[in-house]
Amino acid sequence: MSYEILLALTGFAFVSSITPGPNNLMLMASGANFGFRRTVPHMLGIGIGFTLMIFLVGMGLAQVFDAFPVLHTILKIASVAYLCWLAWKIAHSGTPKEQGAGPKPLTFLQAAAFQWVNPKAWTMALTAITIYAPDRSVWAIGAVALAFGAVNLPSVSTWTVLGQQMKRVLTNPSRLRAFNWTMATLLMATLWPALA
After folding, report:
1. Mapping DSSP to helix (H, G, I), strand (E, B) and coil, where does residue 141 land?
2. Cα(101)–Cα(112) distance, rounded to whole angstroms?
3. CA 100, CA 103: separation in Å to the nearest integer?
């Protein structure tokens, strides 16, 4: 992989990782509701889970979906159901005092598993592999996965910090509730490209 291609890949990884999508909206809500430290497992789950997803897609998982088109429909249904559940969970988050034993931030494994039903993650993975590893060599696929791994964590951390900073404004329970419902609505809006 040439320096120019690596630079373009890194740019693509940054732009696609930093722009709004289900992961980033959930991290902003988690940062606002639970703080940065409690959201770290969620961030690591996204970074490591997505890096692994890119590698597996590049190694042939995309061909399975081409061979069995019904899997696209199953993935779409699972994506919609899981995003609806996550939106409900975000909408019903409360202040730490209200939460008690209630809502908790996503765990590492939950966040890693979410990558497999995240429509934006699939689009990013398939596009990255198609453009930057067209020969499907292990080295090219590994380079794409590592580029995303290196860029993703700092990018998603930005959204968590943004949510944590918003916590200062969201000290009023009604404002926090409005924020959570807004984040849940925006998360549901990310389904539009998958359903259109």
Report:
1. helix
2. 23
3. 8
Dihedral pair phi/psi, residue 148, rounded to 5° = -65, -40
Cα distances (Å, whole numbers) of residue 136 to 13, 101, 128, 142, 149: 18, 47, 11, 10, 18
pTM score of the predicted model: 0.79
Residue 97's pLDDT is 53
Average pLDDT, the chain: 85
Rounded CA-CA distance 107/121 in Å is: 18
Is the CB of residue 1 less than 8 Å from the CB of residue 143? yes
CA distance 66 to 68: 6
What digits encode the pLDDT tens for the residues 11-31? Answer: 999 998 998 888 998 999 999
- DSSP code per residue over 7-64: HHHHHHHHHHHHS-SHHHHHHHHHHHHH-HHHHHHHHHHHHHHHHHHHHHIIIIIHHH
**Rg (the chain; Cα; Å):** 17
User: Can you read off the two tokens belonging to residue 120?
Assistant: 């934006």
**The pLDDT of residue 39 is above 80:** yes
Which pLDDT score is estimated for 61?
Answer: 76
